[in-house]
Amino acid sequence: MIRNLLKHCQSRPKLVTATLVGAVLFGTLAFYAFDAYAVKITMKRVIFEGTKRGEVLTLINNTGDEQAYRLGWRNMRLTEDSGLKEIPEGETPADIKFADQMVIFAPRRVVIPPGGSQQVRLMLRKPKDLAEGEYRSHLWIRPEAEAVKFEAKPSEEGKSAVQIKMLAGVSLPVFVRIGQMTATAKFESASARQADGKLKIDLAISRQGNRSLYGDLDFICTGGEEKVLRQVRGIAIYPELPQRRFNFNFPLPKEGLSGCPAMRIVYTADKEDPLFKGNVIAQTNTNIQ
After folding, report:
1. Which CATH class, in words, describes the domain spanning 2-178?
2. Which residue, among 209, 249, 235, 240, has the nearest Cα to 85 in the 3D structure?
3. 116 partner at 20 to 30 Å CA-CA among 123, 228, 283, 286?
4. 265 contacts 288 by C-beta, under 8 angstroms
5. How many Cα atoms sit within 13 Å of 205 on the Cβ side?
């Protein structure tokens, strides 16, 4: 079966117009690609748990040109307030278990026509007597094309113009969960205040247990008619991190915050989470200063 799988296995100042076709979100790496990026992935993350042994991703070339992409593993650490950082190759931290040695994928290189797609198959090869816990590595997908292309373009008023197109990679986490998985969370602190025409929110969320958490944050106006002021999607807290801090700066609504003296902040699990099944993980209340 593995053999069959592997077979399917970059005088006046000039006016510079920057067109961002794809972005690498390193340090605060996103776990899935948005439509405007050079490559789009149909899943946010891959989880092998229970009897699951295989998964299929679809990569979509979101550019107007044929693109070749290479796939590989990277191991990442989630920091308390700076997002994801790459772990140097060969380093084996005691607080993170890697999944890259037990998950194979194919193909490792794909060529996709404009607007086309390609499937990538993943298969779990779980070693015998594997210790209980959550294992994680990040599947990295990057274009072979040059990172930056310069194209001369005419512009208004006789100025020279250069269009910059950036083609870059995206990443998604791949988890292997072995044994009984538990996780809980709570808000250690939360504050909200108005300043400089913005709503500034500071949070600290702690996590307990042997697996990661993933979900969305809802900021709900209370003290009158309840309404969702803002939602932040894709908030992850990994096992190596007992607590994560967040600082958000949201534009104030046009009508301001009149009638909204306080807010409830709710951390809700992803609907596909087998433990929480889309339910609330944690919530707290705070006054708006």
Report:
1. mainly beta
2. 240
3. 123
4. no
5. 29
